[in-house]
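User: Here's a chain of 524 residues. Predict its fold as tokens.
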Amino acid sequence: MINKRILTVGSGLAVALSVAACNTDNLTNLNKNPNSPEDVPASTLFTTATVDAVGRWFGGYDLRATEFIVQHLAEVQYPDEDRYTRLTGGSTAGFFDNPYITHLEDWTKVIQKGEAANQAGIYAPALAMRTWSFSYLTNTWGDIPYFDALKGDQTGGSLAPKYDAQKDIYADLFVQLDKVSKDIAAAGANAGDLGSGDPIYGGNLTKWQRFANSLRARLALLLVNKDPATANTQLTAAFTAPGGLLQSNADNAELSWPGDGVYNNPWANFFSTRDDNRVSLALINLMKSLNDPRISLYAQPSPDDGTYKGAPNALTADKAAVYICCSSRITAQMFPGNTAYGFYGGTGNSFPSFLMTYAEVALIQAEAANRGLGGLTPAQAAAFYVAGVTASIEQWGGTAAQAAAYLTDPNVVYVAGTTGLVRIAQQKWLALYADGGTAWAEWRRTCVPYTISPGANASRANIPRRLQYSTTERSVNGANLTAAIAQQGADAFETRMYWDTNSAAAPTYPTTFTCGLRGSAPAP
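Assistant: Prediction complete.
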């Protein structure tokens, strides 16, 4: 089920332009730029920040890094990212640098405006979104500038902020998400809202509470291997917080793009001028083995014979080129149609980007129930699992009947215990298609699917556990970066961040092999 409310970027920009026009009155003040308003409305800032953030995390970050790491996609031309040779700190510097100087700064301004007006409906959505983006940053690099960040423009803060430990960052992310749901509840009818400036929920504050609580549950579960006690505490808090969790696909946090050629779905925008990515062999093979009805919703049939065929990851350029003609392009739902390489179907320019979905939330609840966490019991796990799988299929355009039939497959039906944990994780990996950052974090925690490992021609023998820090930081914040590396460990793909550790508590996933090491995975 796709939210049909379309992003009102045009009206937001119109407001910004009208505000700019109002600043031309005092022509004697040469220190003021009449084309750059000093007081941009909170709603305009929120729209701009949200569009920027979703475009970044689901655009270049997704399609230049994480979708290849987690092997939803593979490259059939220029396979440098797929082989990890272009995932160095220089090549990925923008993923680290740009959020701080764009959307994180703008959301901070929205928060300041909302708090000054004592309107939770203004600042709470911005706080939720800022926390969401910071979670991508810390889950990608580990220790990052956090507490001292975003203070160096007008508040006299340091322009070289220190790096904070991921453990401390996570503790504060939970505090911020708790504040979102509770402050909205406390404000009641006086909360105010962003109205049409909110391209996610259109000012619906109950849904912002549900998003914040659901994000809290996502982050809590990432801690389950490292700190199961905190994971349990935070899951319980998320499950019982005001507003509750996402309750159906109607609550999905999604940004529906206008598809007007200016504001397009990031995947469709990317593929409008490129034809170098395909759906991966890992994804296609798993979906075939499970008779998964989403295969036609995630991929297009290979043009050579009309079947679904994946491309292997991490091939050299000459070997990858063999698959240009003979493997599946991404779903027509997200493909732009006419491209520089021809017409391959699809109206994907306006397809939404999913920040968080009910499918993921139900699968989080299924795992919590399996483990007996968050006040849930193992007896509840199957129902949550069925709800999550069904929601994912329907989210992408499938039917309840398809989901019901799929859930009777012996390799799909929920089974208690460790087998159930593996199947929940497997379904989450499938459901998180097109959200490579979250899928990568989950894979590092679970190692499911087990078959994911570097291809024979990858530049490294291990699936990356993190990305290297931006090379820009070495020149502008070198001392603090050096301290962060000393604290966390080498600035290397193999270095594990705080939460990325094997579980010492039952139930857990099989660990009879080295997760993500080439040649060590068990047979599928």
